[in-house]
Amino acid sequence: MSKPITVFLPYNHNDFTLQTIDAFNASGLADRIFLMSNTPTGVDKPNTQDLITDAPLSSQTFRKIGEVARTEYIALLTKDTLIDLGQFALNRFVQIAADTAAGLVYSDFIEIKGDQRAGHPVNDYQFGSVRDDFDFGPLLLFSTPAFKKATAAFTTDYKHAGLYDLRLRVSQTSGLVRVSEFLYSTVETDLRKSGEKMFDYVDPKNREVQIEMEQAFTEHLKAIGAYLEPVFKPVDDSGDAFPVEAAVVIPVRNRIRTIRDAVNSVLTQKTDFDFNLIVVDNFSTDGTLEALNEIAAGDARLKVLIPERKDLGIGGCWNVAVHSEYCGKYAIQLDSDDVYKDETTLQRIVDVFREEHCAMVVGSYEMTDVNLQPIPPGLIDHREWTPENGRNNAIRINGLGAPRAFYTPVLRGLNVPNVSYGEDYALGLAISRTYQIGRIYDAVYCVRRWDDNTDASLDINKMNAHNAYKDKIRTFELKARQQKVASGQ
Fold first, then answer.
1. Phi/psi class of residue 137: alpha, beta or left (left: φ > 0; alpha: ψ in -120 to 50)?
2. Quick check: 447 and 402 in contact, CB under 8 A?
């Protein structure tokens, strides 16, 4: 029986790659193993030969892979790491690929960190799993016909976005299937906490990568009928009656360490309009409510609300504030452990609303420690949001920036999802489907990283839950945009 898999491994002269080659050969399913390198490797192993490439994840590399693969399946290792195949792992990959006619099969895996081994489950792929950092794990099995069909459809030569372009194109014609079994082990070399990794995609040094990812994703949106032209509905805010021009909204639960700083950064704002600060205390037990009441006794602008319901997340608390009698024409976000950059933040945000007649404004922020000392990567300005393509590109990335501010009538019409993660992202996507989002590209906000941040250090299951929810939001939004495009609205 012919062997069904051609294997492609990046090669950087690491000894563990030789072990990985032996593992694939021992499976009995590998017809040939190609080592991807920009120079000859000198490796002398059975069934092994070089594939000279410019960059391991470039479009050119994947074209070459398609040209030399002659088996039914292509196994691709997407990073240079040790792969220890589990019992009959490749057989299982092939079996699932055949049973489902999938274009791509991937699996859960065991992650080795130092002397620790732990299961690393990954998420099921869905229609909205289009962010470029979706975690497939490092080992992918492609159907060769689906792979070649995708590479034949390439329209752009990417240096960084070749794999992203490839799997988006595979998803347009074939299923992407997860095997929820730990089929192999691999070594994790990035030992940072989740909160330290989550901003990698907006690090300025990765700007060239982001531009390529945006271009590949825009092509995907056009292919699936979900691309929106830069045409927006203007907001007419001339006839709205509100008690104040703006209201800052802070949902809070047990933030006695930081809430006074957050409140003070609002009450010291200098504006040419009246504003309220609405803090929704979600049943704090650590003295937060008492601190708020103390401040409110001396400043009538601070409105402390306690929900009637006890089943509210951050989004539900936002709804309490936005639908209250104290909300202004514009509702402006501040997290309970963050602060505004200086006393001009509110004025700058409202000025954008006034000038651009947009339904939402998003600022830029500086990463700091709890003592407001700058920490890497510094300024997060989300320059991938442009008036021309921002609302399309927003579906690819994992956030929109901060602070976020909303034109209240639009927000009241949508309501905020009653969750505590991703609620702002869902709003931004839904609003941008119709309206322009105004932007401020220099820092007006400080995001403070400290041990009690909700996303400072998440385990893999919580990270997966967060990512799956955002992928679901993307699925909803892509479906809505397909309908919008199809109807010609």
1. left
2. yes
Q: What is the pTM of this model?
A: 0.92
Which parts of 226-373 are beta strand (E)? 246-252, 275-281, 302-305, 330-333, 339-340, 360-369
Q: Do 274 and 172 lie in a common domain?
A: no
Q: Are residues 264 and 384 in the same domain?
A: yes
Measure the CA–CA gap between 303 and 297, rounded to whole angstroms. 10
For each of the chain's 489 residues, which pLDDT tens digit applies? Answer: 589 999 999 999 888 999 999 999 999 999 999 999 999 999 999 999 999 998 888 999 999 999 999 999 999 999 989 999 999 999 999 999 999 999 999 999 999 988 899 999 999 999 999 999 999 999 999 999 999 999 999 999 999 999 999 999 999 999 999 999 999 999 876 443 544 444 444 554 578 999 999 999 999 999 999 999 999 998 987 777 899 999 999 999 999 999 999 999 999 999 999 999 999 999 999 999 999 999 999 999 999 999 999 999 999 999 999 999 999 999 999 999 999 999 999 999 999 999 999 999 999 999 999 889 999 989 998 887 888 999 999 999 998 999 999 999 999 999 999 999 999 999 999 999 999 999 999 999 999 987 765 555 689 999 999 999 999 999 999 999 999 999 987
On whether residue 57 sits in a domain, the answer given is yes
How many CB atoms within 10 Å of residue 220?
Answer: 22
CATH code assigned at 175? 3.90.550.10
- DSSP-based three-state secondary structure for 376: strand
- Whether 206 is covered by a domain: the verdict is no
Give a yes or no: residue 181 inside a domain. Answer: yes
Q: 350: part of which helix (H) or strand (E)?
A: helix 345-356
The answer to whether residue 214 is domain-embedded is: no
Domain check: are 178 and 284 in the same one? no
373 to 96, 313, 367, 442, 446: CA distances (angstroms): 51, 30, 8, 17, 10
* Domain enclosing residue 112, as ranges: 5-191
- Structure tokens, 254: 């047990």
CB-CB contact of 352 with 433 (8 Å)? no
Among the three residues 159, 175, 191, which one is the final residue of a domain in this structure? 191
Exposure string for 68-99, b = 16+ CB within 10 A, e = fewer = ebebbbbbbbbebbbbbbbeebbebbbebbee
The total number of structural domains that make up the chain: 2
Please tell me what DSSP assigns to residue 68.
H
